Amino acid sequence: MPRDAFARLTLLACVLALCVVVLGAWVRLSHAGLGCPDWPGCYGHSVVPEETHLIAAANAAWPQRPVEPAKAWKEMIHRYAAGTLGLLVLAIAGLAWRRRRLVGQALALPLVLLALVVFQALLGMWTVTLLLKPLIVLAHLLGGLTTLAILWWLTLRQSEWRIADAAEAGRRLRGWVLLALCVLCLQVALGGWTSTNYAALACPDLPTCQGQWWPPTDFRDAFTPWRGLGIDYEGGVLGNAARVSVHLAHRLGALLVLLVLGGLSWQLRRARSGGLRIAGGILLGGLLLQLSLGIANVLLVLPLPVAVAHNAGAAVLLLLLVTLNHLLRPREVAA
């Protein structure tokens, strides 16, 4: 295969990984996470049963989960895409192993990526079998974003994309970028916890919450990670005070993201490199768009397209920060 086959394959997998992340948000936010009560098939089939006798048989086998074709197809489309991504990652790991003696060929990350995708498949199964347990669903979300970030990093490190004078600015800005990445990851986790606990509309007003600046809260119950087995979490199990706590934590996290990523954008805009100034403008635009989508989710009562776009926006911000990290670090070896 040509030398650049690895880069093309990682780029293709990266695009598909972004689609899988967005599809996962679409499934979760349209309440289709249990559209298929079994795994990896759907009511014992590789496709959604739609014929009358197949639906009757499925309803008899899973009486607690009658067939809803619209939800089931959403879940299966996500599984098909995730399965295809898994095959691509397997091909990437195999190709990296074959080319391991080539100078600059990444090997450790493709193997780590393969292990991560296998674990992601297990988390996908547990998401269904453990009835949308928030900790598992959150881990599945973070695993998907980590997969996306690693694929994008591999793609960038195999490319020749550089910005003049970026490495010189890197010594000054790497700390900012690392801090921004950590803060964004924390906020993504808070957003995932908000979604998986059905707390997105716990505060239906802005800037107050339920007409108060600080309504009654219960942070201890809100962030209890494990509540045992056998609990159906569809629709959420938290009380009002706990859901308010989760929502407020996500709002406070948004303020922190605004300060840190906004500060990073300002630093980039002051750089001597024209490329970094452009990157700072793009980062600021993405940040403001993401905050606007979050506000729209509250004011418009969580419309599905806006909620999915908010999830996609978090993934795009992650990719922007990974890109900045690449630009600010001189490439000695591809890894």
UniProtKB/TrEMBL annotation:
The residue ranges crossing the membrane are 77-97, 109-129, 135-154, 175-194, 248-266, 278-302, 308-328
What membrane topology does the UniProt entry give?
Multi-pass membrane protein
Species annotation: Plasticicumulans acidivorans
- Answer yes or no on keyword Metal-binding: yes
What are the GO cellular component annotations?
A: membrane
What's a Pfam family this protein contains?
COX15-CtaA
Pathway(s) where this gene product acts: Porphyrin-containing compound metabolism
Q: Which InterPro entries match?
A: COX15/CtaA_fam (IPR003780), COX15/CtaA_HemeA_synthase (IPR050450)
What's the protein here called? Cytochrome c oxidase assembly protein subunit 15
Lineage start:
Bacteria, Pseudomonadati, Pseudomonadota, Gammaproteobacteria, Candidatus Competibacteraceae
Q: Name one GO biological process term.
A: heme A biosynthetic process
Keyword terms: Cell membrane, Disulfide bond, Heme biosynthesis, Iron, Membrane, Metal-binding, Oxidoreductase, Transmembrane, Transmembrane helix
A single MF term (Gene Ontology): metal ion binding
